[in-house]
Amino acid sequence: MSDVVSSQWLVLRSVRSTAWLLGSLLLLLAGCWGAGTLMVSAWDAASPADRALFESADMTVISGPLAQLVLGIVGVLAVTAEYRTGSITTTLTAVPNRLRLLGAKTLVVAGLATAAALVVAVGSVVLSLQIAGDRPAPIDPWTSAGDMVGTGAANMAVCLAAALTGVGLGAALRSSAGAVMAVAGLLFVAPVIAVYLPDPWDTRIASVLPSSLAAQLSGDDYYSLGVAGAVCALVAYPLVALTAGGLTLLKRDA
User: What predicted TM-score, i.e. pTM, was given to this entire model?
Assistant: First the structure.
């Protein structure tokens, strides 16, 4: 299995889009710093009444969803890039056990996504603290170190789930465009649609979507799942996607 994992790590590194996508996460952090700095500048210039209307300087609100999209695409391309180039035939000849191949791809993407998500989460937290400085609430994003760590860990978990879901969707659809659209639809289109559903379905549907899971994992009680329900939903997304991808690999020719 270690040889298969090593080969899939080489495949992932050889895909040029992997480096570009990971590099975009650094640009994302720079954008968060710029947006946060502008917000704090506006807060400094606002009246006391207007200051109470501001949101906190928690940059994970911006970086989290976008990092999920980027890492979801990395997961997709870890599979579909070989179908696009036709090298999947050679890969399957070398690794005829298709579930082992999918498992190796999953492990490689999981390791890379965890490292990337850690950088984004820590970077976002540090930037949030730097931007907020010693300003009071509502600009101050966290009331305790536990809340701060919980927010970062929750965003890391959702990013990892998004990456693994991308692997499963890539294996199931075998199309870069189709799988990327599916990931983007799940992360950004579905929450918009949920807003327009009649009450109480708007909140019920929104609560199980990836966009709301990080907040619920951090203890936000606006949605109905709670921490335990959010964990179940978080596990369900990659589990269902990878199961679908595995069945597709077994039943369809390369």
Answer: 0.89
